[in-house]
Amino acid sequence: MNSSMAHTTKRATKTKRTTSRTIKRGLGKRMVKGKNFRLADKIRYIQRKAADYDACVVSIGQVVLFSTATGDAWVVDRSEQLAVRVAREGDPEPIHIEDTETTFRIGWKGKYRIDADAFVYLDAYTGWITSIFSPIEELAEVL
Questions:
Q1: 87 and 67 in contact (C-beta within 8 Å)?
Q2: CA 85 from chain center: how many Å?
Q3: DSSP category for residue 32
Q4: Residue 103 has pLDDT above 80, yes or no
Q5: Is 69 helix (H, G, I), strand (E, B) or coil?
Q6: Using CA of residue 9, residue 10, residue 15, residue 18, what is the dihedral sign?
Q7: Among 4-18, 97-111, 120-134, the least confident range
Q8: CA 33 to CA 20: how far, in whole Å?
């Protein structure tokens, strides 16, 4: 992984105090309290949406996950304009994630921009450019 593309992101926290209950998850997985989430779970969710060719946008703090009707799925950091594809044509793509209680680290593979009616991705390793036109309306609202 290119260290210049690795970026540690602090989790969004709620200022409102809520009661939390501890939920034990499967073997070998950390415990999760009410407001916390596992990024890996959200990525699997968006990969399943992509496998169903279902366009979907999920926003979690500064991170946005989205899938397209063509079976692609992406994770983006809207503050740094970093991006990584997590599914292609319905098939999951490998992604490097380090997920702790307070932060997560993603192996970003490129940068993105919104250009008129398209999400445009530039792969930092190959130089390839990918343009996505749907779900641009929903993306434009959160990016």
A1: yes
A2: 9
A3: B
A4: no
A5: coil
A6: positive
A7: 4-18
A8: 6
pTM: 0.72
Is the Cβ–Cβ distance between 5 and 108 less than 8 Å?
A: yes
Q: Is 114 helix (H, G, I), strand (E, B) or coil?
A: strand
Contacts of 28 (CB under 8 A, 6+ apart): none
Closest CA to 108 of 4, 33, 19, 15: 4
21 to 7, 32, 33, 107, 110: CA distances (angstroms): 30, 8, 6, 31, 37
Place of tokens 């993306």: 139
Please name the amino acid found at residue 66. Answer: F
Whether residue 121 contacts residue 29, with contact meaning beta carbons closer than 8 Å, is answered with no
Taking the C-alpha atoms of residue 39 and residue 127, their distance in angstroms, rounded to an integer, is 27
The HSE-up count of residue 67 (CA atoms within 13 Å, CB side) is 26
Residue 130, classed as helix, strand or coil, is: strand
Length of the chain, please?
A: 143
In terms of pLDDT, which residue wins out, 54 or 23? 54
What are φ and ψ of residue 32, in 5° steps? -125, 130
A 10 A CB-CB count for 103 gives 11
Task: Return the residue matching tokens 């950390």.
Answer: 30
